[in-house]
Structures are given as C-alpha cells and as structure tokens.
Amino acid sequence: MTDARDAVRHLLGAEPTSVGSNVVTLDDGRRVIAKRGAGPRANAAEAAGLRWLTTGDVGVPDVYAHDETWLLMQYVPSAQPTPEAARAFGHGLAALHLRGAPAFGAPPPDGPRDAWIGLAPMHNIEEPDWATFYAAHRVEPYLRDAVDQGLLDARESAVISQVCERIDAIAGPPEPPARLHGDAWSGNLHWSSDGLWLIDPASHGGHRETDLAMMRLFGAPLLDVILDAYTEAAADAGAPLADGWRERTGLHQLFPLLVHTVLFGGGYARQAVAAARSALTLA
Name one GO molecular function term (predicted). Predict the structure, then answer.
C-alpha cells in the first residue's frame, strides 16, 4: 500500500472521499487518522499502547486497524485548553498510572518488546526495580549512541554515567510499576471539546514521575492545573507522590533529552548534561 487511500481501502474496507495531510474522510462521513509507522513494529507497539491506556480515565483514540506501514485511528477534533479539562486530565492520569503494570519495563499486552519513542527505537525489557530498568534500558543505550555520534565528549558522558552509577541514591522511595504513556510531552497532549486526550504513546511499565517530568520538559498549557489535580487525586487514592518528586525531574528528563540528542543533536546534549548534574545533587 503506497498511500493512505490504499491503506483505508485495504484495512477498513471503506472508500475515501478526501485525504488531507493525515486525515482521511470516508464515504460515510467518518474521519480517520492515517499515520505511517516510524519503523518495524512501531505500529504494533503504538496500537498496543493505545489499547492499554484505554481505561476510561483519560481520553485515548480508538485503534481501527494497523499493519507494518499504516496505523488507522479515531480522529479527535481539536479545541482550546480549559481549566476544567486540565483538572479532569490530572485526576484521570493519576488513576491511569495507579492501574499499574506487570513489571518495570513491561510492554503493553500484545505489544512488542522492541518498540519506538518518536523516531528512536526503544526496548522494553523487564527488570525487578525501576532504577535498574531506567539506567540499563533508557539512559545507557542513548548515552552510548550520543558518544558514538560525537555529540558528547568524555567529560560530559562521565557526568551522565555517574547518574547511572548512583541511581539507587537518586531515584527516591521504591514505587510499584505504573502504567505509563511514556512520551507525554505537550505535543502528545491533545486538547478537544471532550477534554484532554493522550496520543502517540511509548507505553511501558515505569515510574509515574517520568510522565510528569516529560510534561514539564517542554511545557504544556495549564500545566500547574494538571499537576495540582494529579497530586490531589494521587493523595486521595492513598498513593501520594513521594517527597522530592519535583527535584527528581532532571533524572526523569534525562532519557527524553538523550533521545532528542541522538535524533537532533545540538543543544539537547547540553540539556542532557545539565539534567544529569541536577540529578547528581540528590545523591
């Protein structure tokens, strides 16, 4: 299948009447998102992640069909952010995280171990604790790639390596695995008339502070409202965030900053080193 029209015909048995940049209108009036995968198993991973996050806690698009090239999903019209939607999302995200995961590093049910975050490969490998998982399967692979590309020198890479060496002292109190979106930057928070939805996940069993740190990395509309509602709901559920969670933001942002470093280079390498230095102050 060479284009979205062919994908819709083949996977949905429907006839497109128009095709935009990634929105296909069908002859029955429905609109469908048609998205190309980043690489092998990317669509299977994203589809499994979307289904795993579809719990009713927050808005998540329905998956209609997918193959190795195309992922067809529910189209959700955009709308302006509102405080009401932000509060509801914060409450819902806390509930979603607390639904848990089988283990740290566990992929979604029926999802592949070898997945993607954006345009970068990402491996979901189960470990007994979050610190081991995060150091071995999130930070170190991208650190090696950044060094191999000449994006980090020996002194800079040593700072990041120290975080992995001292991560047990930095990570904070142990928590059970959370059900993570995994790539919750502002571009993957979709505001609609029905509230704030999650799209484009890199889902796995992880630490709930990771999603919160990702939202803070590039900013998001009404972020303070979201985080206040989240902390309120987590506390009400008997699972308050551990003291110092805001100070651990740099630790959890280290992974996405290294991903951006290997994909885009430039200033992201400096930001990754700064995040590592921030994390080391907690050791």
Answer: kinase activity
Within-domain flag for 6 = no
In what helix (H) or strand (E) does residue 251 lie, and over which residues does it extend? helix 249-264
Q: What is the Cα–Cα distance from 157 to 148, expressed in whole angstroms?
A: 11
Nearest to 107 by CA among 62, 41, 61: 41
From the CB of residue 247, how many other CB atoms can be counted at a distance below 10 Å?
Answer: 14
pLDDT in tens, 109-136: 999 999 999 999 999 999 999 999 999 9
The domain that holds 258 is classified in CATH as 3.90.1200.10
pLDDT tens digits, 75-94:
999 999 999 999 999 999 99
CB-neighbour burial class of residue 21 (10 A; exposed 0-12, middle 13-18, buried 19+): exposed
Is residue 260, in this structure, part of any structural domain at all? yes
Question: Per residue in 4-61, pLDDT tens?
Answer: 999 999 999 999 998 888 899 999 888 999 999 999 999 999 999 999 999 999 999 9
Q: CA 9, CA 258: separation in Å to the nearest integer?
A: 39
DSSP characters over 258-272:
HHHHHHH-THHHHHH
100 in a domain, yes or no?
yes
Measured between its terminal Cα atoms, the distance across the chain in Å is 52
Q: Could you give the number of structural domains in the chain?
A: 1
Domain range for 258: 77-283
